[in-house]
Design goal:
The complex is a heterodimer of chains A (131) and B (129). Chain A is 76% helix and 0% strand. Chain A is mostly helical. Chain A has one domain: Fumarate reductase/succinate dehydrogenase, transmembrane subunit (3 helical TM bundles of succinate and fumarate reductases). In chain A, helix 1 packs antiparallel against helix 2 and helix 1 packs across helix 3. Chain B has one domain: 3 helical TM bundles of succinate and fumarate reductases, CATH 1.20.1300. The longest helix of chain B has 31 residues. Chain B has five helices and no strands. Chain B is an all-alpha fold and 129 residues long. In chain B, 79% of the residues lie in helices and 0% in strands. The chains are: A mainly alpha (131), B mainly alpha (129). At the A-B interface, helix 1, helix 2, helix 3 and helix 4 of A face helix 2, helix 3, helix 4 and helix 5 of B.
């Protein structure tokens, strides 16, 4: 990196805006969900390993620490889902007008918190708090 | 010329995008698939009677659910891999370290994806013993 003494990009000069916030959150939630994928595989493997192993897995997933992780995963999933759909519209060339992009960005942010909490509560209720 | 490589071969692939369009398009295809598979998965969890072994395995053992669960595992692994690759390419400056990390990530997701698929197949067809 130190081969060139000239500035290469506007390093550390970005203003904190909705646009770069939604962008970096998409990356962060993507990384979190990439880790969450291993939880899905763990859960499937436990179910395949028989009732005892599955019961042990649900006990672990029911612990408060795992529940916090799963709440975080639900929020990350909903954010990545909604913002991903927003990006698919961007890819198709829609929604780039400033008011529309700002509105959709805020809608994704607020919608993902609401939807994430709903998903976590509803799944938790459905699975009997077990997982 | 003191090399076995032709000038054309040395130039091909040196653009900034390299295999970029294929990567970009796969990311979108898996994204659309995951919208559908993700909604199916959470709807399935919510419709379960409870989170117990019987209800979960009965759900995943039905042919359609097994197929969609396998697709969910494969598509998520692929989508995650494509996304992590972009992040490694953006934030890891050293080409050598980037290649090693990418290889490690690919191996990890290959193993996890196969474990996930085998788990669903085992739920669907029953354990051998």
């Amino acid at each position: 990196m130190a081969r060139h003494a000239r500035p290469l990009s506007p390093f550390l000069h970005y203003r904190w805006l909705y646009s770069n916030t939604t962008s970096i959150l998409h990356r962060i939630t993507g990384v979190l969900l990439s880790l969450g994928f291993f939880l899905l595989v763990y859960w499937l493997a436990a179910a395949a390993a028989g009732p005892e192993r599955y019961a042990a897995a649900t006990r672990f997933l029911g612990s408060w620490l795992a529940q916090v992780v799963l709440l975080g995963t639900a929020l990350a999933f909903c954010y990545h889902l909604l913002n991903g759909i927003r990006h698919l519209f961007f890819d198709a060339g829609h929604g780039f007008e400033r008011p529309a992009a700002r509105k959709s960005g805020w809608a994704v942010g607020i919608g993902s918190i609401v939807l994430g909490l709903v998903v976590w509560f509803v799944v938790r209720a459905s699975l009997g708090g077990g997982a | 010329m003191s090399t076995l490589r032709t000038p054309l071969r040395r130039v091909i692939g040196l653009g900034s995008a390299k295999g970029g369009s294929g990567h970009w398009y796969s990311q979108r295809v898996t994204a659309v698939a995951l919208v559908l598979l993700g909604v199916w998965f959470f709807a399935g969890l919510v419709r379960l009677e409870d989170g117990g072994y019987e209800s979960v395995t009965r759900w995943l053992a039905s042919p359609l659910s097994s197929a969609l669960a396998i697709l969910l595992v494969l598509t998520s692994a692929w989508h995650a891999l494509l996304g992590l690759q972009v992040i490694l390419e953006d934030y890891v400056a050293s080409k050598g370290r980037r290649a090693v990390l990418l290889l490690a990530v690919k191996f990890a997701y290959a193993v996890a994806a196969v474990v996930g698929v085998l788990a669903v197949l085992r739920i669907a067809f029953g354990a051998a013993a």
